[in-house]
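New to this. Explain the following:
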Amino acid sequence: MTTVLEPTLDRARLTAVSTLQRLLAPLVALKLDAKQAHWNMYGPEFLAAHDLTDELAAELDRFVDRLAERAAALGFAVDARADAVAAAGSSLPAGRLTVEEAAHELAAALAAVAVSAHEGLEQLDEADPVTHDLLVGLIEQLDHYGWLFRSRLAR
């Protein structure tokens, strides 16, 4: 009976880990973008945006850790080295930017990662409900911060 279950378990684990890996580097890149905005924004509502980008970076850091540790719990290593994160890309332009520009770019980046996370949900529902639920929590936070940037900062 064990041999019958192993291929299914392996397939489920591979599905979960490939989804986690696909999200990990973009989440690290998004966290770095939040800090980049935090350090380089100026203009009206600066203080609120400054605090919000710091809060976002901390929340993303927590989720990066949770995703990577989930992959480790499933018996796999993840790749969040500088090369992998650089390949994920940055949504922010270099240099100083207005609060409005930062809010727009971060809201769009949050939405893009949320779309990517949604793509894995259907497969994970049956393959790995724990990873599925982890992604549901991630999407909830991405949507929440996207809403905050769209409604509080962008004019």
